């Protein structure tokens, strides 16, 4: 499968009162064309930071990219000219679905105005000479009609009732679920290659979550769009992802196709995670120990302090990526080879 | 509909508030050691003449009766006669109102036009040299005594450099009286030389008045912009690669301005209060000097008249600000 | 209670790191020192009362650091004694405003219904007219003197305290800990003193600091208009008014007191800003959460 996005050795530090926190420690990540990849991990594991690093919207003063590359369709986004990235990549080739639909719209403008603002600059129908050069430049007339048609069509696709009237409404007049549908619509309008969805259903009611997820999956599969989907909820990952990658304390631990990931997890952390959600007797078993400090992180494999199988090697050296089967990679010195739930 | 409800609520409280204000001022003005009637009559008047004057002016009746009489007259639009100018107070006020309004308006517009962009820029280039300089300026702006600033400006620009006239509104003849605003009248009648002179005279007092207002505006706008910059919709717009000027000047600014609009009402209050003192420094023939002089001359009718006017203005301005806030923030409208 | 002491200490250390707040503190200290040590620091301490007509309107020199005024008195020395007046007015006026405004705000915030509405309307009345004008009216009515100025300022500034306290009390009522303590049967008094007051302390402190600056400016304006303490009291505002007819030549006569006012008010404003940055988010968070 063609590789759309390849992150290699990404290191990101955040400035804190107690010194730099190593939030991402040499992460690797691959996303193929038309693939929905789930990025799973506990709060603070760095998945949102990774998502934002790919988009290039890390907070400027606080975060520093120490090393690594983000290859998207051949170009390294980290080394490309920022204006080009902002113009051609963000909002066009790579779009974003935020976590909180309640505050991601400006409350002062109707949603239609905000969507058309996006279309003005990011419409797939815009050719290079066609885009407005400045704030006051007008929307090219002919394109406006075509763009508006496309907007209405997409609103119908996300099952928004009465699309034309909806455009005139203000954001607060919509429910959370409806606003997230609008976000999905906006993410699809520029006809992107990759959508980065940062915990898009976390802020929604449980009853609506499944609906939105299925809608998203259907739409992206129709259009052959890849998705990087971050979540701390294993259930949602299982619901819509083709592949799952699990992260812990700024390191990726395992990546596998969904069935394999949930059926035969190889990394001790993954196994623990799955067990903690539902033990064989329906019990929830916590992983002993605490999430480590990122300012003074554990050496070697960062999970070793809490791992049952840890050895001296684990403390010293970070495991290299080991390919277990096709598409199944794990970073562990002692991967487990047994079905899920087979542990004591 | 909410707008109407708001307006009604305000108007309902308008009456008792104004009543309270009048009562307080009335009591203060009548319960005083000095006897204004004697002051008016002059030192050479005999007791009989003073008594006659007192009867004449109605000051011999009991206090509550005087108050009721006053309110009745007020209802007819009669604020009484000034003890000193011997003209109806309504006339006096109307005559002097345009001067104060013109000064205040010019100061307010100037402070908005300069203050808001400075606040935005200061927030965008946070902790830059410009930002720090502005911080110093704004903190100073709120610490300088208005009257002293006026005097220092006079000292420098009028006396030492001779760039600006010392005081007053206009030497010689005013332009044709259409609105009472010299700038407007001069412009409308194409009298550009008078326009220039009037502007020159406005310059120093307007700057003096605008300075604290400017300081406040810069601070509030800066805070509003910084706040907006942290919001999620800005993050989203950045993630989607929208051009930065669009994000800043359309979305962030609108967000910041919503809070600034409420401040404009506060601003007006500050400006009016400052106008009183500034007019005194520059001999500006407006309401401020009228009020101060009336107080100093114990012209209590005039003081009452001024209080009524001030109270009404304050309440009306507050109402307008609330209305403006509702218009600017559509969330309020739809509720 | 211990929670609040800890929080207070934390606030102090944080304040110490705020450079502009420290500058404010220094300025205020300068003011206080000038006032307290005026007789010692002044080069011509008797000039508050004595006249030296032969020395009038001299430029700043070695003998007279800030020159002399129209009576020949040393401007610098009179300035120092003027600091006493300024501090006195500030402290008493703000203190009185606090004493009037805080209880009113508490009562208005605690109770609902007509009592609360009435109190807030009364404070609105006082806010309806610009403070300066009202202060002028009161001072004029009673006659120009130091106590009258203080009275006029106290009567016009208390609504600001009342409003702040009212808003905070209402906000606190909604917090769970107040509801539960009341449900446990605590009397309103106990509730107020032990629980509400410590939590509104910080906004009151911030308001008081800013209020000092504001009050001093208004006091100077009153002095300028001739409504302050009469001569020979070396009040700063009045001095500026006296100096006007001798401008532009005797510039020091007007510049010095104005600068003194500026530095003083600046000091209180900077401190108030620093206090606001430090006290408001901190104390509120660590207070109620661990309370009984």
Descriptive key words:
heterotrimer, A: 344 residues, alpha/beta, four-stranded antiparallel beta sheet, 11 helices, 12 strands, 32% helix, C: 292 residues, mainly alpha
Spatial arrangement of strands, main beta sheet of chain A = 6-7-8-3-9-10-12-11
* SS class of chain A: alpha/beta
Assembly level: heterotrimer
Q: Which stretches of chain C of 5+ consecutive residues score pLDDT under 50?
A: 282-292
Question: Helix tally of chain A?
Answer: 11
Number of strands of chain A: 12
Query: Topology as H/E string of chain C?
Result: HHHHHHHHHHH
Shape of chain C: elongated
Strand content of chain A: 15-25%
In this structure, how is the largest beta sheet of chain C organized? none
Strand runs of chain C, count: 0
How would you state the average pLDDT of chain C, rounded?
A: 80
Q: Give the overall shape of chain A, derived from the CA principal axes.
A: globular
Helical residues, percent of chain A: 25-40%
Low-confidence stretches of chain A: none
The structural class of chain C is mainly alpha
Give the structure's gist in a few sentences:
The complex is a heterotrimer of chains A (344), B (335) and C (292). With 344 residues, chain A is an alpha/beta fold.
Descriptive report:
The complex is a heterotrimer of chains A (344), B (335) and C (292). With 344 residues, chain A is an alpha/beta fold. Chain A contains eleven helices and twelve strands. Chain A has helices at 47-55, 82-89, 111-122, 141-157, 163-168, 176-188, 206-223, 234-240, 258-263, 268-277, 312-316; strands at 3-16, 19-32, 36-40, 63-72, 75-76, 94-97, 194-198, 226-231, 243-248, 251-257, 322-325, 328-330. In chain A, helix 6 runs parallel beside helix 7. The two termini of chain A are 38 Å apart. The mean pLDDT of chain A is 87. In chain B, helix 5 (89-124) crosses helix 9 (192-229) and helix 11 (244-282) runs parallel beside helix 12. The mean pLDDT of chain B is 79. In chain C, 75% of the residues lie in helices and 0% in strands. The termini of chain C are close together. Chains B and C meet through helix 1, helix 6, helix 7, helix 11 and helix 12 of B and helix 5, helix 6, helix 9 and helix 11 of C.
